[in-house]
Amino acid sequence: MHLPEALPKAELHLHIEGTLEPELAFALAARNGVDLPYADTEELRAAYLFSDLQSFLDLYYGLMAVLRTADDFTELADAYLARAARQGVRHAEIFFDPQAHTERGVPLGTVVEGLARALDRSEERHGVSTQLIMCFLRDRSAESAMETLRAAEPYLHHIVGVGLDSAEVGHPPSKFAEVYAAAGALGLRKVAHAGEEGPPAYVREALDVLGVERIDHGLRAMEDGELVERLVRERVPLTLCPLSNVRLRAVDVLEDHPLPSMMAAGLLVTVNSDDPAYFGGYVGDTFHAVHEALGIGQEQLRELARNSFLASFLDHDEDRRARYLAEVEAYTFD
Ligand SMILES: [Zn+2]
């Protein structure tokens, strides 16, 4: 039977660190001699039911301590890709946060080489094509972002672009103008989280100052009619993460999510999982959830899937994009 979950799709907003499931966290902790402040996977799973942003961030960054070696990163990415494949993902553009690892003494090369090992064999193992996007933590300094970009230069053959994530308010995109200009000069694609908690002005800045091609989240753009018109006119993709918005309280309940009105406005929106181990579902689960809670019908699910490939960085391989789009059209729900 074909479930809506299995609709072929691309995932464009996925933090690899956010795919760390309790079982793998414990396995890596044991292997690396890291003490976790939880008795077992059940207790850790209960901690994943955090109630606010700060407890999420504490858990998220705390658990990263188990990721030490290149093999750890390979296993993490491999586990995500296996799950994603089961949920219809055919192409994944994966974020990682180098500073979250270099700050605790794990070299950037270890992280990139470990992830790349899983990504390079993903097509053969899982039938999922991949790209890697390096994100800067926006609550760190612009200098730290620039140092990270410079340190990444030997690994750029593994990296398609740069992004900007973590706590948004008080850290406007313009803070990173220089590092984005430098990334552009290196031929990297550009995306940024904007308009999740931050105001519509941050979305404009990401477009005008950083020159991003996609906005990650962009929910609050809906407060600004002129901005919505521009996003529609310029076909700027927005990578929405509805389950994440509920867990981090950008919306109270999924039933209140603006996805339907964003689609009705003609925005090029996609649906993604963000940090799926923590937010209650992978991208196929998310498609299922918006179908159930928001009445997103089968043809609209197909539109979301189509958008995901249109918004992806597959410009270097239009044949592949066309093949994926044909899979979307050929998919039968029943
Ligand atoms: Zn995100």
From TrEMBL:
<dbReference type="GO" id="GO:0043103">
    <property type="term" value="P:hypoxanthine salvage"/>
</dbReference>
<dbReference type="GO" id="GO:0008270">
    <property type="term" value="F:zinc ion binding"/>
</dbReference>
<dbReference type="GO" id="GO:0000034">
    <property type="term" value="F:adenine deaminase activity"/>
</dbReference>
<feature type="binding site">
    <location>
        <position position="15"/>
    </location>
    <ligand>
        <name>Zn(2+)</name>
    </ligand>
</feature>
<dbReference type="Pfam" id="PF00962">
    <property type="entry name" value="A_deaminase"/>
</dbReference>
<dbReference type="InterPro" id="IPR001365">
    <property type="entry name" value="A_deaminase_dom"/>
</dbReference>
<comment type="function">
    <text>Catalyzes the hydrolytic deamination of adenine to hypoxanthine. Plays an important role in the purine salvage pathway and in nitrogen catabolism.</text>
</comment>
<dbReference type="InterPro" id="IPR006330">
    <property type="entry name" value="Ado/ade_deaminase"/>
</dbReference>
<dbReference type="GO" id="GO:0005829">
    <property type="term" value="C:cytosol"/>
</dbReference>
<protein>
    <recommendedName>
        <fullName>Adenine deaminase</fullName>
        <ecNumber>3.5.4.2</ecNumber>
    </recommendedName>
</protein>
<keyword id="KW-0378">Hydrolase</keyword>
<feature type="binding site">
    <location>
        <position position="13"/>
    </location>
    <ligand>
        <name>Zn(2+)</name>
    </ligand>
</feature>
<keyword id="KW-0546">Nucleotide metabolism</keyword>
<dbReference type="InterPro" id="IPR032466">
    <property type="entry name" value="Metal_Hydrolase"/>
</dbReference>
<keyword id="KW-0862">Zinc</keyword>
<feature type="domain" description="Adenosine deaminase">
    <location>
        <begin position="8"/>
        <end position="321"/>
    </location>
</feature>
<keyword id="KW-0479">Metal-binding</keyword>
<feature type="binding site">
    <location>
        <position position="193"/>
    </location>
    <ligand>
        <name>Zn(2+)</name>
    </ligand>
</feature>
<dbReference type="InterPro" id="IPR028892">
    <property type="entry name" value="ADE"/>
</dbReference>
<feature type="site" description="Important for catalytic activity">
    <location>
        <position position="217"/>
    </location>
</feature>
<feature type="active site" description="Proton donor">
    <location>
        <position position="196"/>
    </location>
</feature>
<dbReference type="GO" id="GO:0006146">
    <property type="term" value="P:adenine catabolic process"/>
</dbReference>
<dbReference type="GO" id="GO:0009117">
    <property type="term" value="P:nucleotide metabolic process"/>
</dbReference>
<comment type="similarity">
    <text>Belongs to the metallo-dependent hydrolases superfamily. Adenosine and AMP deaminases family. Adenine deaminase type 2 subfamily.</text>
</comment>
<feature type="binding site">
    <location>
        <position position="274"/>
    </location>
    <ligand>
        <name>Zn(2+)</name>
    </ligand>
</feature>
<feature type="binding site">
    <location>
        <position position="275"/>
    </location>
    <ligand>
        <name>substrate</name>
    </ligand>
</feature>
